[in-house]
Design goal:
about 300 residues, nine-stranded mixed sheet, 12 helices
Length: about 300
Amino acid sequence: MTVSDSPLLSVVIPAYNYARVLPRAVESVLSQAGDDVELWVVDDGSSDDTPAVFEALAARHGERFRGVRQDNAGPSAARNHGVRLAGGRHVLLLDADDELVPGMLPRLCEQLRAEPDIGLWLAGHVAVQPDGREREHPASPLPDGIAERLSAYLLDKTIAISHGACLFRRDLLLQRPYPEHLRHSEDIPVFAYALAHGPVRRLDFSLARVHKHSGSLRHNAEAARKVDLKLVDEVFDRLPAAAQALRHRYKAQRCLSLFRTCMLAGDQDGARYYYGEALRVDWRVLFKFSYSRKALRLWLGAKKSV
């Protein structure tokens, strides 16, 4: 590929304080990338040894390694920066602590050349647990209609999408960038937009090895509460009319999700608030017994302590 050529595929890796594992992600791309694949790594103002890692990777790979640094602005800003830099028709966003499955890029590029107009590809991934256990997860089945796909993703949770296990046509990511004011669940509006504006197809192989980590429940609860119900507007404001009938149910479900997150983190006040909001939005959540039983125990426990 000459400098004037446009690559078929751009792999974008946003990185923040992942100096220890970033070389693994980079090597997993460049070890199998042909002339039709480019790599961009965006350092989101890391405070660890990432700049030194950048120097070492550039020394090893030359112009094949493209790394840029920005002031810390969050993962959405890093992804958006990488998408703007990318020259490929298609973009694969890979988290810095994950890695591509060996040998999959030639197979993927063959598929992209055969069907260049697909807006979103869903693929499988290999989940790698901290203890080394691995499990392969195939791509989710896809309903035909827009409303059906969005319902399966947003409400029924029968479509699973994650970075590293999906692929976008770049113009969709330019039309619907990641919301930089959100620091939690920021990928949901982008995934929903791509599902609605497709076309969408499945790949019958895995793209990435996704390394799982144990997170802080308290931190997750705080981040989720900062986003609050603003996520509902962020998801639906750019979706077509065919999807708007799902907004009401999604808002109720979002309240239940926040209720569960607060419960797991021990935030009982937050849990009571969000369950009350879920009831206010849609009283039928009473029939979601896994939630209503937890809520009943929560209120009974509060009364006993008075």
